TrEMBL record:
Residues 899-908 have a biased composition (Low complexity). ATP binds at residues 173-180. This is Kinesin-like protein. Belongs to the TRAFAC class myosin-kinesin ATPase superfamily. Kinesin family. PROSITE patterns: KINESIN_MOTOR_1, KINESIN_MOTOR_2. GO terms for cellular component: mitotic spindle; nucleus; spindle microtubule. It comes from Anabas testudineus. Residues 77-515 form the Kinesin motor domain. Gene3D superfamilies: Kinesin motor domain (3.40.850.10). It is found in: Cytoplasm, Cytoskeleton, Spindle. Keywords: ATP-binding, Coiled coil, Cytoplasm, Cytoskeleton, Microtubule, Motor protein, Nucleotide-binding, Phosphoprotein. InterPro entries: KIF11-like, Kinesin_motor_CS, Kinesin_motor_dom, Kinesin_motor_dom_sf, P-loop_NTPase. GO terms for molecular function: ATP binding; microtubule binding; plus-end-directed microtubule motor activity.
Amino acid sequence: MAMSLSSPYGCPSDEEEEMAVFESTAAEHGGLARPRLPEISVISPGLDNRPAVTGPKLAVKSGLVRQGSGGEGNTERVKVYLRVRPLSEVERQKGEEQGCVAVQDEETLLLKAPKESQNMRTAERGITQSMHKFSFSKIFGPETTQQQFYECTMKNMVKDVLRGENGLLYTYGVTNSGKTYTIQGCGREAGLLPRALVSLFRKLQGRIYSAMDLKPVMYQDVRKLEPNEVKVEEIRRNSLLKEDENTTSRRGGTTTIWDSGVGGLSSTSNFTSQLEDTDSVCLEPDSLSHSSGDDLEEGVQFSIWVSFYEIYNEFLYDLLDASPSMQPRKRATMRLSEDKLGNTYVKELTWIQVRTAEEAWKILKAGRRNQSFASTHLNQNSSRSHSIFSIRVLHIPPQADSGQAMHISELTVCDLAGSERSKEQRNGERMKEANNINTSLLTLGRCIASLRHNQNNKSRPPQVVPFRDSKLTRVLQGFFCGRGTSSMVVNINPCASIYDETLQALKFSAIATQLVHGPSTKTRVAYILSLLREPTENGNESTVLEEEEDESDVEDEDITMLNSEALLKAIDVLKREVQRQREEKEVLEANVREQVVSEMMEVITRMQDGFSETLEAERALVEERCEDRISNLQKHLKKFYSQELLERDQEIEALSAALDTQSVPTPAPKANTEGLRRSERLTGTDLCRLRAELDQCRAELLTKTQELTKLKIQLELPGPTGTITSAVDRKIEEGQRNLRQLRLDIQRLGVDLQSGERACCRNTGGERLRQALTAADETLSKQDQILLELQNSLTLIKADLRRKAETLAQTEAPRLQLPPSGFAASTTPGFCKKRGCAAAAASDTENRPPQKRPLFHSLFPTRTPTRKYNTRAVEEANITPYSRVLRSRQQSPPPSPLPSARSLRGKY
Ligand SMILES: Nc1ncnc2c1ncn2[C@@H]1O[C@H](COP(=O)(O)OP(=O)(O)OP(=O)(O)O)[C@@H](O)[C@H]1O
């Protein structure tokens, strides 16, 4: 989401500006209400007449709180310094100098909107003023030197940190306004940080604890290191220091590109940056000459550790962790964690022990090489991240081993990234950075506004301060909540072209100027002392404490000045207080737990109801689906079996048709017969085979019938009758043999058909098959009948022929004396014999016609022997093998033709 700079600070824009926020803008100038606005908008904490926030009730009473610039009775306000940087030559040539920034006095700044600014346009429409007045703790003009700035801003913080206080200094401003210049410096113009380091080490001369066995960890704890851990620390420290030396020796304008971890290659660290111009901390000879460590605690030694990290695109990167490489690589991010008291700290942050300012300087430079810089349209070497350099001072008492408490104090210097209109960034990565920078600065602004609101409205319920909304505010939270004091340096650039941005930055800082510090370490001491003055249970105040009260005033509220009796008393009071607070908390916790439990129970009940409803609905749905599936299955099964039955019926019809026509080949089993059961497939194959054999038999029968017909015709024709009859006899015999064979085959086929029909016709149109087979049998019977008739005719013919032969013999007897040569053969014994044979055969045939009788006997053993042959033959012809099957069926109960739908369903 692109954000413009119009209100990234939690400040309303000019249009929405509230009088309550920016204090007495109109009231100061005659109370003119809109639309007639005053010419100048006055934004100043000093002009706030309302009583500023008071600290802890009893702390004020005892007068322990330091007086701030806000006047008597106010707690100490947060120091907000303004630094105006000089215009560069190029900027002057571009006409940037339009007198829009004017320092009126040490605390007052006047802004006049230039012609082209947005502010001037809105002012011309009467919406806002074109001039704005701001007040700050101190304003530093363009001519201010680094040394002067240090003296007025950070020098005291260094003193405080050596006394055991924590301090934060952060720079804020539009990009290219001089923040990095102020913190780190440029060339020989060392900034606040190197000066602070030099000052610190000068004060600690001879008091440095050089062993590395005590290391700061977590929020503000100390850990004793094992010898092997000390070695690791030594290696890490030396490698960083060596890295600086190596880099210095190969310095020549090389640029290293680092992968920032999130958005690809976006961080550029230029070796020829401002800091690299100096190999050592360069300060004026007399700048810190008066520094001395006289006010340090007696016998205490100091171990100094530094860390350096940045917040880039809402990710934390350790700037001292990276080993140098010329290859782009992915940097590891760090996480924020909380100790058991809820204090936020950076987990796995590298802390390096330094023993001199030079070492600290080298570490700073080594870390800076890993920092995210990029070129923007306003600044060639713009910081794209918030960089945080921390110095932790371990106050090691002389008898540290004897269990005497060790103390830690910290000085943190934060160089915030410059705010900028994100829409002016054409590069996607720069735009993303700008958005993240603006978002975190916006959160910082909201936090400061909420803190101010809470401080000004003690009687109302406090607002939640959104520290958790950004990494920056989370890591700085402690400094806004009593961990120490914070100071803000607002940097501005007097260029006319960025007037609107400068105005917004100043409005943001105006809110910060109204902040007071949270209860500091000192005020906590005051709080303890105030507890000692609390009325005792019998209503009298502690006399010991009354004595100590004056003393504490005199001794500048130092608790260590109290005598042991008072301290013991204080401890007792504190113990009681702790006990009381614990009990309070327990009651509170019990209430909270009760509420949580009841709410949870409600939620669980609601969830239970919801689940039951869902379960019911699911069950109904599943039931419905199952029913649907069952009905679908039934439908499909029904369809499948109907189809199956239809196909079988068609097959049977085809079979019947084939049997009827005797010429149409039996249709081959369909390709989909694979799905049929094995028995059905076997039956189908057998049927085919049987049909083929039946057809063959019929064809043979037809041939024989034709031959018989031919013979009959031949017999009617005149000719050598003996030859003809004998040939006919042979043929008849042959035909009879064939017929016997055929009948045997038919009998076998009948049996096979019977079994096949049993297997196949149970579920199909068996009736039709039966009819077809009956018809076939009838045809066969008719043919048998014809054959019988033929045989009878043949017998008659033979008898006729015999008679004729006898007649002929009688008529030819006289001629036997002189038989003609043509009849010699017929009068030969062979001939007679043949004739005799023929007669015998005829009589035999007559006595034993037809040859099929034994076959019919075997086929139809039930025929009545008393009947005449012809009747029997007809009967036997009517009793076909299939009719036997039918008869046997009629005797046994018929199988059910089709399985019921119920049995099918049960089967599947
Ligand atoms: N007081 C000053 N005297 C002389 N030159 C200055 C002063 N302040 C800033 N400059 C110069 O102005 C330029 C921009 O300064 P600097 O890089 O410190 O800005 P910045 O606010 O840190 O920018 P960014 O937020 O983009 O990092 C630098 O060239 C610096 O040397």
